[in-house]
Write a structure and sequence with these properties.
The protein has 54 residues and is mostly helical. The protein is rod-shaped, with a radius of gyration of 16 Å. 83% of the residues lie in helices and 0% in strands.
């Protein structure tokens, strides 16, 4: 998931550098959403992940 967020961020940066503001804005928005989803899933997996057996 983090990989896709970084890919969309790179697409947004390239599109912004070339002057495609609509595509850059959309790609940046997708990258932000994917990054937030990644963070939420990461925190949940850290909380409910494997626990050592007693």
């Amino acid at each position: 998931m983090l990989h896709y967020a970084i890919v969309f961020l790179v697409i947004a940066l390239i599109a912004a550098a070339l002057g495609f503001s609509g595509i850059a804005g959309t790609a940046a928005g997708i990258a932000k959403i994917l990054f937030v989803v990644f963070l939420v899933l990461f925190v949940v997996s850290m909380i409910f992940g494997r626990r050592p057996s007693l």
